[in-house]
Amino acid sequence: MTEQTKQAVPMKERTDHTLLEVTGLGKHFSLGTGPTTHAIGDVSLSVADGEFVAIVGPSGCGKTTLLRCLSGLLRPDQGQVRYAGEPVNRVPGDLAIVFQEYNRSLFPWLTVRRNVEFGLTDLPRAVRRERAREALERVRLEGFADHFPWQLSGGMQQRVAIARAIALHPRVLLMDEPFASVDAQTRTALEEMTASISAALGLTTLLITHDIDEAIFMADRVVVLSARPSRVVAELQVDISRPRDELAVKALPEFSELRRRIHDLIGASPAAEA
Ligand SMILES: Nc1ncnc2c1ncn2[C@@H]1O[C@H](COP(=O)(O)OP(=O)(O)OP(=O)(O)O)[C@@H](O)[C@H]1O
């Protein structure tokens, strides 16, 4: 792939400084006396400060496991994760995670505002309020602060989860299949909104997804994993300027070419039994 069009990203400061680095990462799971699952074989990758990277791969290849190791939620068996040059042993304070299952990550007994303020208990009340207001405005839910999550649609609940993540003022945002549980139309809107929030806030973003189109539309670079035990089979730069309009982007020949290449790479690496 050619050199990336970095100059077309006006709001987001991109640097070539590595922020997240994974070297020779491997992970097995064993359940009691049962068979061992070799989830991650040998994965090395790096994410630059301000970069948006998507990770795709066959079902069960260890994408979630990789994200959990990257965030410090899970300890790898081999290799190392470094964040800002330091080994990661627990979740860094300026790293936020958005999971697929918004209905399990939001507290139904708290209002939307209180859910968004949830990780900010160390801050004074007025600061918490302001952070929640700002974050809800970013996800265009400012009118729903006093609702409860169960009064909102699935897409709106996932926007609350995104607001809660950005209210932390993170430097890094990790997302694990964040839009997999919403309908196709809502998904497109959420992809556009999240990509523009990431750019506007200059976040370093890592997205795990099954959806090749979503990966290309949102990311600066797509990392393709093999079937389990996974390794990196390709890293493809997305040379499409921002801001991106989903319909226009999907009509571009370079989009179709990337989609075909990634599809072939994943097809050549069939899914392991998950
Ligand atoms: N805590 C665990 N204990 C035992 N096995 C696990 C555990 N977590 C994951 N695995 C196994 O490791 C493999 C990789 O799982 P993981 O969820 O990381 O893959 P994935 O690529 O995210 O899957 P999918 O594409 O289906 O979401 C699977 O075979 C899974 O069953």
Automatic annotation (TrEMBL):
SMART domains: AAA. Residues 20-252 form the ABC transporter domain. The keyword Transport applies. The keyword Transport applies. Keywords: ATP-binding, Nucleotide-binding, Transport. It comes from the Bacteria. CDD domains: ABC_NrtD_SsuB_transporters. This is ABC transporter. It comes from Streptomyces djakartensis. The lineage of its organism: Bacteria, Bacillati, Actinomycetota, Actinomycetes, Kitasatosporales.
